[in-house]
């Protein structure tokens, strides 16, 4: 026995424009502000914690030293800010 859904239940999924809905301006502002704020917080908080533990990081035997961790924080925060800008204008 093969399960077949009723065709009339999923008729709106056949239309590719069924999901193309515009967001309201306040939704875009709130969403983009959240992403940009999260990116800023990630940068400042991450760099503060990284500076506080710099000596321990340099003495550790980990292959991820200060520079690579700094690059990770900067790239994560830049990605979040970029998503915020994208959310606002697209």
Automatic annotation (TrEMBL):
The lineage of its organism: Eukaryota, Fungi, Dikarya, Ascomycota, Pezizomycotina. The keyword Transmembrane helix applies. Residues 23-53 form the Distal membrane-arm assembly complex protein 1-like domain. This is Distal membrane-arm assembly complex protein 1-like domain-containing protein. InterPro entries: DMAC1-like_dom, Mitochondrial_unc_protein. PANTHER family: ACR195WP (PTHR28048). The keyword Cell inner membrane does not apply. Signal peptide: none annotated. Keywords: Membrane, Transmembrane, Transmembrane helix. The chain crosses the membrane at residues 71-89.
């Amino acid at each position: 026995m093969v399960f077949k859904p009723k065709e009339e239940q999923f008729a709106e999924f056949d239309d590719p424009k069924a999901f193309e809905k515009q967001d309201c301006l306040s939704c875009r502002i709130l969403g983009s502000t959240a992403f940009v704020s999260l990116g800023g917080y990630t940068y400042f908080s991450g760099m503060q914690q990284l500076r506080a533990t710099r000596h321990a990081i340099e003495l550790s035997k980990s292959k991820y030293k200060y520079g690579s961790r700094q690059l990770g924080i900067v790239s994560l925060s830049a990605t979040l800010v970029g998503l915020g800008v994208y959310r606002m204008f697209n």
